[in-house]
Design a protein that fits this description.
With 590 residues, the protein is α/β, with parallel strands linked by helices. It contains 16 helices and 23 strands. Helix 1 crosses helix 2 and helix 10 packs across helix 11. It is globular, with a radius of gyration of 26 Å.
Amino acid sequence: MESALRWRIASESQASTYPYLRLLIMTKSFGFDPSQKLTADQEAVLASMLTLLERGAETFALHGAAGTGKTFTCGHLANELIKKHGKNSVLFITPTHAARRILIGKLPRGVKVFTVAYFIKSEATRVFDKIAFARPPASRYEEIADNLKRNVLGGKENEDFNLQLVVSDESSMITQKDADCIQGICRILDVCYALVGDPYQLPPVMSKEEQLAHRSTLSVEIRNDDIIYSKDMCSQFRDNSFLRLELKDVKRNKGEILKFSSSIRHAFKDKHFLPLSPAIDTPEDTGIYIARNYQDFIESAVQAALESKDGIDVAIIAHRNQTVRQLTEDFRACRFPDSHETHWNKGEAVLLPCQTPFAPPINEEGVVFVEEFSTRESFYSTTYCEVKDVKVLDLSLNFGSFQYETKSTKVKKEFHFNMTGKFQKLTLKSIHFGTQNVVFRPIFTDGMPSKSLKRAKRFVKEMQKRKLIPSSEDPGYKEHPVGKILLCMDSFLLDINCANTMTIHKSQGATLDRAYIHYDLSFCQADYRNNLMYTATTRASRQEIFLCLDSSQESVLPLLEIGKQQLALPPSERRKPKLLDDESIDQWVF
């Protein structure tokens, strides 16, 4: 039996003009400045790396504490290789999308940065609405290497394949299997593989299977969404049997922050505790501050965010996802007391954790132009955005329909893909890239759109069982009208996170102006408590504020007069502070 498929989607001629414009011009300058001089320590390491490459080294590791300038030195290395060998002579890879986003802004313009999964071509298997990744077997390394040569790093527009070096950043988080896979591909490409990172930061995350087996052996309670780390880092990065360089001179956090983090690093096997008293550098006012009660902690973080340059150089970090969710709720309640429970607000900094497609056009009758929807037109994964505008709308959306016959009575029926509810129409602008576009998502208190999508997915599953619609893992599913409808409906239920709260795991690699550190990391599993504590206490370049509950003493917090003044105003009257000029100065104006 053949199914009759009917689109009820307005034609392109009826659609209003919709600007799909991806802006690739950075509105903020990259953090890498080739004119900035290297220290003697960095010069020596750069010279050693260039020598190893000239001698045809297969692999080497570069270790260094947070603030020693590992990425800055690698930026100069990339610059030298591009001068000598041309475009695409160096490639950087990262274990996570978050680390990739951070790294892009610290390297010379035009240097490619991939995730490990993209580089090794982890095979994605889609089972309806879930994706699982599988590492490729060694038999596919030749094919992957050939694709990199011909299509990714050469071959296009008559470009030569110039690759000399693959650098993995945050290498402490790379698993042994991934490192072996990367090295195997690099051998076929005949390029050097360098692993850069800090062995005292976070190790790789256990696989789901390893976590299930490990939970029963733990002495502390582990929630289902808690991350469990492996005890071992890959041998290419950690073992002395491989060539290893080290940066020792810390350029960032010369004061009390460095003292505290160094005490953890230098006695890593000892049990360490979060500071209980302030340690402030004078006269700079940098260093360690203490919040003695929770409300002081939250209010200070909000004031700091209101006073920050771009809204994302201040963050509250904690170990557990559950803690971060509560911190997010309380942070937003303090900043937007009248609207935090229903929607995002103008001026908020948000993080898009996944690739986020732009909204398709919608006409006045609520017809969604699904044909114009494309996942290629989107904000990149882990993009920081500012909310430029918010509108709360009552929408009754029509995505199309599907005609079919009932199985037993052969009666013709029609299923309508609809979604009704209160939606936020958000105009978002990427803080780093300048891309601006519109997305939709329901208000936080309306669960009806989610129920509509679940109902649609149940129907499609039934049609797939009857072979009337291709299965989601089959070729052509995304191009099939119903597959595209579901993808489009799903884009109206996208995830958006607060940019000012995050787990320690997500913060690795970030450099904040002020880090607000929750005490929940003191109660994590002992095997990697010091890794978490060291990573958390090396995030801030200026001030770290620790939450230490003690009602007998007063909080010692940074002086944030402008932030305090802004918080006292209604949200609609707050204005983002601007510097008098492009240089870093102390005076703020409004």
